[in-house]
Amino acid sequence: MPRARPHSPHRPEPLALVRQVVAGNPAAWQRFVESHLGFLHALAWRYARGDQDLAEELCLVALEGLRRPDAEGRGCYRLRRFLESREQLGTRSRFTTWLALVAKNLFRDWFREREGRRHLPREIEGLAPLGQEVFRALFWQGLTEAEAWGQLHTHRPGLGPAEFEAAVAAVYGALRARDLWTIYQDLLRRLPAVSLDAPLGGPDGPHLQLADPDPVHRPDARLLRAEEHAEAERLRSLLAEGLASLPAATRQVVQLLVFRGLDGDQVRRVMGFRTRQRVYDEMARARRRLRTWLGRRGLGAEALEAALADLGACAEPREGPGSRSGGGGRLDGNVGRDGSGGPGSESEGGDA
Amino acid sequence: MTCLSAEELAALFDGRLPQARAAQGRSHLAGCPRCAGEIQRLSEALQDAARQDALRPSAELLAQAVALGHPGVRPVAAEVPARPVPADTRAAPNERK
User: Fold this and answer.
1) Where in chain A is CATH 1.10.1740?
2) I need a surface site. Which of A127, A190, A313, A344 has the fewest CB within 10 A?
3) pLDDT tens-digit map of B43-87
4) Which residue of B has its CA nearest to A28?
5) In a 3-state reduction of DSSP, which class is residue A50?
6) How far is CA A250 from CA A130, A266, A286, A288, A333, in A?
7) Is domain A15-115 annotated with CATH 3.30.2010?
8) Does the interface predicted TM-score (ipTM) exceed 0.85?
9) What pLDDT sits at residue A31?
10) How far apart are CA A341 and CA B9, in angstroms?
11) A97 contacts in B (CB within 8 Å)?
């Protein structure tokens, strides 16, 4: 089975060792640390941005998090949950994949605590107070929806389930709008000032003049200009519709490959495809369909095609840690750009 | 559908989630920015970590990390000496070959 990442082929998954650690065996803990500290350190390095002391601190934060007891005082509840999920739900991830996910979340929590109060993203500030609380519970505290309900219900005895559901929907709605908007800004950055109403004459056509050839000029600033904002809105909603019109599997591939920046093999595994070619076939289908869809609506189909191809190309492995906050086609998470800029703005995946 | 747990996300990422749940998970990802973001950041973290092959944790860090096991979450008597192993030779975990 092809693997995207080197992984020691000589050892079985270290489940026996994890079981011994969970059982509280100190010698097992030492072996566990010796096995995984290098990996944790490499992970932490990215979040520490080259600060050696901070990287070491984060390693200890993650290991402490793995040892943390649950409410009943039973040790290592995260590792315990990993084992239980394997046995009960049949989740069979590599241990290191799980470890990376959990460590990343523990790093994020640590940064969050250190940074203290954070600013809500713009989209969320616009929501009612209940929506903001739901957002904090889901994304900053990392609660599941059921847990968030429990917590909010305790604080707000009058809160009904329907009201809560509506607030959750509003939060996700606001974040989805942000996602598309980010994508949109990227498309505009690549195709600045293409008039959407005029036909495109070709590469030399007058409408392909760049309004702002200066690459350091941020698309955000340009978008503030009202008429371009209106164009962007129109293109944004058309693109959203176009994406929604794709078959589910195709749309999922586009999302993972282009918007989420997974590489081809990772997308293949998530989608359960047998070959990576299937990923690229789906991507090609998405381009064809979007081109037709947008073309029928009078958009510069060729230019958009080029932009999408460009986006697709940048789904290949990226450069350094700095790339995640760059203005590229990848979405910077759901709560990114909220001013913190650090890993503290990561969102949560159930490691609460 | 509820969000995926860390265990399920990791298994989905590795292509090792039972089929029925994987199908649910994929359609959930399509509509849930939070879980899709988790997959994205997991991918980024693993790709970055793979580039840091040359990094080795220091001896001090290894010692501190091992010592976390001794306060004992469970009251199991320490069976190993608290003294850390020499890190020069042991501090290079072979997660990657």
Assistant:
1) 15-115
2) A313
3) 989 988 888 877 789 998 999 999 988 764 433 333 444 444 444
4) B69
5) coil
6) 35, 15, 6, 11, 21
7) no
8) no
9) 94
10) 24
11) 10-11, 13-14, 42, 46
